[in-house]
Amino acid sequence: MDWLNMIDRPDWDLRLGYLIHDVSRLRRMMFDRALAPLGITRSQWWVLAFISRKDGLPQTQLANELDVGKVALGALIDRLETGGFVTRKADPVDRRVKRVFLTRQAGRFMEQLRAETDVFNAKIVEGIDRRELETTSNTLLTMKRNLLAMSGDTGAELSEERDELVNQPKTVRKMRKAG
């Protein structure tokens, strides 16, 4: 596409990109503030949340799936292990491989985190009709599918995410009450 064609094009798609970015950035920033009293960093709760869905992953696979360097993830796991949130165990087949598991303390923390997340998300969607939320969600999932297709990804991550969205009864009940 040449420059002249871009000038004549409406800029809604550019604004959409900025809006998606800004909503994501503001959500992260406000979520960090909401979780500050819990005494955990964004990176730490992000790792804990991922492990809670895939407990016992090898540390190297966890680094790959989170798209984080192995050294950076190792430092995060060290801090989480020191805090009593995770434990590393040698793989029963290959003792060089370390698998990462949540502790009971982390399980209790994740329950608290989920409760805080439900309250936070209810505030975000306040005043938005349920049908609008479903349309927005479906639109974003389609955009994600298109981006994954562009990257050559098979879309397994999208299927897991869609299943996760469908299986969130607490949030859905709260949104129905609000909508």
TrEMBL record:
Region (Disordered): 154-179
Keyword match Oxidoreductase: no
Single GO molecular function: DNA binding
PROSITE patterns to which the protein is assigned, alphabetical: HTH_MARR_1 (PS01117), HTH_MARR_2 (PS50995)
InterPro entries listed in its UniProt record: HTH_MarR-typ, Tscrpt_reg_MarR-type_CS, WH-like_DNA-bd_sf, WH_DNA-bd_sf
Record keywords: DNA-binding, Transcription, Transcription regulation
Domain of life: Bacteria
Domain HTH marR-type stretches: 13-145
Name the UniProt record assigns to this protein: MarR family transcriptional regulator
Classification of source organism: Bacteria, Pseudomonadati, Pseudomonadota, Alphaproteobacteria, Hyphomicrobiales
